[in-house]
Write a sequence for this structure.
DNA sequence: TATGTGTTTTGATGTGGATCAAAGGCAATC
DNA sequence: GATTGCCTTTGATCCACATCAAAACACATA
């Protein structure tokens, strides 16, 4: 597959699916909120998830401080989440792709804690929170799965803490590429070649590194025969080698 | 108050409260899972939270990999949560004190993701998860508050990511002390003098720093007249000065 | 009181990644 | 196809924190 086709495949909205409103016919249902629900339960969820929203590249799905009233399921596209600190410093705290849930940070305090910015034209399902609460009192499978998604977000973040707290630069970047690869794979895309949706700077912000360091690591991986990189296009040549980058550290 | 008394006050179990089983009479109820529930609702919760467990200093409340079947509310004492990576490297991902909930990381995959280790003799309430699910289908206040606690854990962790990703050593340590201070204050303890329950190394692990760096920062803060430190005892002398440590960074 | 063990402090030195700087590449718009 | 505005790469230098080392200290147990 050429790079151009790959880019198109990953960002094309699924026009057919847009004709049907919601989860029952969504090809992401096994990854998303409805995972594990019965058909009858799915129908109930469909009544809840009826508002779709398109977000243009660069625009915010929500911003820190805004009133929280819904969570969002990414239907297509790609987002970054970004926390801005009082003094203006900010950090990217995550990247989200199809089937992943955004906005759960807002439940605790009633306002969003971060900005969710689309890194490409994107499409989300809006899930009003109070109605989700109501429905998950009736549909225990939904309740359980929603809890799981929140819990997994907690676990994901402690993984990032590990990354930031104990790994060195190249390990972080290898781990990041492998994580992306695995998530793309779960969505039916090639795990070995893909387009990065974020800049080196955004990647660095997420990983606690400067963009120059990210760039140098990419060059090093390329020289070591682990990957091919051309701007935002990445091809993983030696996935085992990439895994060894952080398996074989010196303690 | 002398340092000895302070230490005793913070670690003494509340013998009287132990006679009553659960939440309705717990002095932590405003901070803990039952926050905001009506008296009737509290009574229902009392039926759920009936297993108490004592954990000795150094022992684990649970360990990574164990089957998850309950979350825990810290009643007295102090815990660290620790994630161990495949290759043996580990990181402290949090510290928990009275009224805080432990174990929510296990919901997603059905097994615990980290070890929870008592840093002093501690006392927890066991909350069986399936019963919590059932009850929160009936008691919407409980459902909502449980969601809030999970969400706050997500927000807390993104705060730590910020700390690890963008702050420098002294900022991290100042932020850490102020966070401890604020949490102790919310529990009725002095926000200005307290005993650290963790070693310099555990603090460093949490903050992504080496123990020597933590020690040096403490010495520096002492020389700058911000705090007094004597081993595990800390007195904050100039809380505003401490806040300025990370407010006045150079960008 | 002596002894061992783990914790903390402090100093000297090393280094990974930040910072500074400059050049080159890509894509959109005119 | 020239201009403009990012984004990326690469090199040179710097510095914050790690690492290495040693001594002091705290606390438990014999």
């Amino acid at each position: 597959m050429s790079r151009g086709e790959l880019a198109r495949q990953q960002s094309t909205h699924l026009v057919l699916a847009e004709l049907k409103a919601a989860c029952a016919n969504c090809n992401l249902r096994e990854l998303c909120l409805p995972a594990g629900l019965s058909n009858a339960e799915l129908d109930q969820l469909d009544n809840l998830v009826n508002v779709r929203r398109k977000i243009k590249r660069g625009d915010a799905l929500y911003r820190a401080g805004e009133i929280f009233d819904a969570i969002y399921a990414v239907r297509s596209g790609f987002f970054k989440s970004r926390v801005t600190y009082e003094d203006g410093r900010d950090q990217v705290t995550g990247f989200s792709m199809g089937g992943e849930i955004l906005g759960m940070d807002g439940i605790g305090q009633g306002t969003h804690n971060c900005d969710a910015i689309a890194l490409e034209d994107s499409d989300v399902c809006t899930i009003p929170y109070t109605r989700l609460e109501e429905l998950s009192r009736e549909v225990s499978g939904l309740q359980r799965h929603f809890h799981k998604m929140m819990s997994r977000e907690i676990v994901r973040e402690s993984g990032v803490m590990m990354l930031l707290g104990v790994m060195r630069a190249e390990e972080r970047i290898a781990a990041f590429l492998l994580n992306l690869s695995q998530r793309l794979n779960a969505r039916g895309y090639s795990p070995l070649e893909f387009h990065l949706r974020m800049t080196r700077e955004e990647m660095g912000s997420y990983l606690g590194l400067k963009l120059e360091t990210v760039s140098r690591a990419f060059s090093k991986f390329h020289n070591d025969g682990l990957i091919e990189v051309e701007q935002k296009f990445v091809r993983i040549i030696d996935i085992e080698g990439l895994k060894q980058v952080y398996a074989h550290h010196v303690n």
Summary: Chain B has two domains: 3-160, 167-250. The first strand of chain B starts at residue 51 and ends at 55. Residues 199-201, 211-212, 214-216, 218-219, 231 of chain B lie near DNA strand C (CB under 10 Å from a C1').
